[in-house]
């Protein structure tokens, strides 16, 4: 396990070209994947980390991508966008997320805009599929949150085989009676007949907020926000100050902390971020959130146990 983790970490290394391209940067070193820290009550910290980032209630399900992911970067220079997407794809490969070969139809959109509020408020009219199923007040909250970045997923209900759940009419003469119909032979208190799969994931960021960030930092942040079901409207995630101050370990999610400069934020995914994402993409999709969260916590513990203490 230790060797596998080191290989994955080294595979995530690349030159941290600045998005703003204002100052030259040195080549990444193997230690850049993690942020130094100390172990303290690791079981409790793992539980808090996993539960903070998976807000689903106990009887619901935690979603993720089931179909291959295909990220696209819009709103930046082509050369910068390619660096971000290449890094994103390295992260997806390292954590075990399904990844579509190039070229592919984008289902993860990372968009840099002058004004997050104006862009998101225009989406119901110009890009309704990217906010499908969202009520107007939810879209307004995403647009007006004080953070310069917002991210969310549009999810669909799938059966146990990963296929879209079909609707059947209870009354053939009344199309309004169509309801989801699922056939399953393996339903229990632990396993459900369904799973929640992301159909599209969106991240909107204000262009000026990217100043002096490295492409590696932003790509890693975008990967964590778009691949994981982090609640986009919780008070902690929408804060303009420290949006993830409640996390018990350092995280790339602190990148947009208003009180930090990019140089003070983590240079990439931390081991905690990496462990969370890899555990998320190894969990059983048909379990309820209670059991899924337990699998994520157990997976994180196994991964972090193989990391040197002085790198946590």
Q: Could you list the spans in which at least 5 consecutive residues all have pLDDT below 50?
A: 22-38, 165-184
Quaternary state, please? single chain
| Euclidean distance between termini CA atoms | 16 Å
Structural class: alpha/beta
Share of β-strand residues: 5-15%
The H/E string reads HHEHEHHEEEEHHH
Question: What this model shows, in words?
Answer:
Helix 2 packs across helix 8 (289-305), helix 3 (78-95) packs across helix 6 and helix 4 (116-126) packs antiparallel against helix 5 (136-144). Strand 4 (166-169) and strand 5 (178-181) form a beta hairpin. This protein is globular. The protein has eight helices and six strands. The chain has one domain. Strands 1-2-6-3 form a four-stranded mixed β-sheet. It is an alpha/beta fold and 312 residues long.
Question: What descriptive keywords fit this protein?
Answer:
8 helices, alpha/beta, 312 residues, globular, two-stranded antiparallel ribbon
